[in-house]
């Protein structure tokens, strides 16, 4: 009887421990890495947190520079590991990456979250590129989750690899009244970059002929549509605008890009101003032009 009771107690203990382990939420796995960019006073950081119990992950990438110097481009790409009989490789998680730049914003930070699947192995690649005013350029990939990860044929580096370009709307131009100058946006254009849709947008102000400096200024923004009382309303996307001014020329241009999401309509808006010198004084005039609307 004593032996039987002891066996029963041990069986119960094992059963209870198993039940406790099964009901407990798996620990959240986190990885953080920071690397300096060679030749410039900047660094790139990637952080990844996977909660297998909640079936979610969150991820973040950032690039920052001392004094905020440089034009920055950031591409944040989560990946999943796949192992087969002949191939071991990391794959981009499609349509969940984040992209922005070039932009002077410092620090430039992009973050997001998506679903995670129990048993899958994940990592995060964060690609940063910086170009300084003295034309120095540097780029680097930080990998969160690479340490201790399975070996594969996939490198733990990244670059900006545009694929499947989709010109969606043509360029438009508006005259700056009273001057031979105009403001233009180069059209709405979508590109697939490392599994993420990106909207590219450019604008410029220029004056015909060789003229004195017109002190032009330019602002370009991306806008997204929404429905309000049955009408389409356009909202400027926070952080999408770039502005610049020149005191030494009659031409100025801006170019940038950012993540675009399926199911949304986008358009590009460009506003330009010139202070144009004439024999009768300076003409100050402003005009705005925008693209047609489209989605990726």
Strand content: over 45%
Distance between the termini: 74 Å
Round the mean pLDDT to the nearest integer and report it: 88
Summed up, the domain count is 2
The dominant shape is elongated
DSSP strand count: 20
Q: Indicate the CATH architecture of the largest domain.
A: Sandwich
SS field, number of helical segments? 1
What's the helical proportion of residues? under 10%
Order of helices and strands: HEEEEEEEEEEEEEEEEEEEE
Please summarize the sheet with the most strands: 6 strands, antiparallel
- Please write the CATH class name of the largest domain: Mainly Beta
Identify low-pLDDT runs.
1-25
Task: Kindly describe this structure.
The chain is mainly beta and 296 residues long. It has two domains: 29-159, Immunoglobulin-like (Sandwich); 165-290, Immunoglobulin-like (Sandwich). Helix content is 7%, strand content 56%. The protein is built from one helix and 20 strands. It has one helix at 2-23; strands at 29-36, 42-51, 56-65, 71-83, 88-92, 98-103, 108-115, 122-131, 137-144, 162-169, 172-176, 181-185, 188-193, 196-207, 217-228, 231-236, 242-245, 252-259, 266-278, 281-290. The strands form four sheets. Strands 10, 11, 12, 13, 14 and 18 form a six-stranded antiparallel sheet that branches. A hairpin with a 5-residue loop joins strand 1 and strand 2 (42-51). The longest helix has 22 residues, at 2-23. It is elongated and about 75 Å long.
